[in-house]
Amino acid sequence: MADANVVQDTAAAPPLQTETPPKATPPTSIDIDNKPTDFDGQLATNDEIPSDATLAEVADYVLLDKHGKSHTFQSLYNSPNGARRVLVVFVRHFFCGNCQEYIRALAESISSEALLRLPVTTSIVIIGCGDPQLIEMYIEATKCPFSLYTDPKSALFDALGMVKTLALGEKPAYMKMGFLKGVFTGMSQALRQLPRGLTLKSGDQRQVGGEFLFEPLDLATPLTTPTDGQGGPAIMEAFEQISGQGDCKRHLEIKKITWCHRVRSTRDHAEIPEIMELLGLDGHGQPIKDTALWEKTIKP
Known about the structure:
- The protein is an alpha/beta fold and 300 residues long.
- It has a single domain (52-219, 254-298), classed as 3-Layer(aba) Sandwich (Glutaredoxin).
- Helix content is 29%, strand content 16%.
- It has eleven helices and nine strands.
- The strands form three sheets. Strands 5-4-3-6-9 form a five-stranded mixed β-sheet. It has a two-stranded antiparallel ribbon with strand order 1-2.
- A hairpin with a 5-residue loop joins strand 7 (239-243) and strand 8.
- The longest helix is centred in the middle third of the chain and has 14 residues, at 179-192.
- The protein is globular, with a radius of gyration of 29 Å.
- InterPro entries: PXL2A/B/C (IPR032801), Thioredoxin-like_sf (IPR036249).
- This is Thioredoxin-like protein.
């Protein structure tokens, strides 16, 4: 009888109900470094000229050339035998396809000879933020005819107010290569550096750059040491005297930044026509296939 009761109770028990787990909701976007908005739009920054105090502070910042040799920042834009005006262009990491496109566009449109023929001799200097051993690769990839240095710690970038972002921004006229092709080109360059151990040494991926024009305080200042009849003390104030060897004295002009543009996205360098107009060069550079974008770029 006891067994029958057990069977009867079991039969009378209601069936167990199991709850169906809720379906997982897929993420609406990929979370990269918890900042997916880094890829949207442009970063808010400004084009204010660095102060005299800032320029004095960064004058002795150390940069490296392709041989790993040290150079002060001031020596890049103010040397005894150098050009009187110098446009310093800061670029992203050495595998960045966007910046490589920009340097290629500069090289195609502006030659060193054309710069030296200007009424005020002018040169262009490029500064990256990766390992100096990658400079040779960068020069070869971009056909860059300009002097190229690097600031591996991005200290100079920071001091001059350049920012860090992954925002893509609008497509500029200097970008001839498609976005995906640029990405794959950069990845290919990085992989080829595996044997040298440089794949992860191209520089800070978030660091973006800008352009800074250095000019003498007075562009009419003569290149030789002036006499009293040429202006005397007033002109002499535009020079910084430094000691040479023995009794020899060399004089360097005091220079200031007269124009600058800080990049707001990963492809926001000043367009080539703007740079050419700034430097006093004829023309607008090499036209692109996108006629509408090109006309928008060269429009006053």
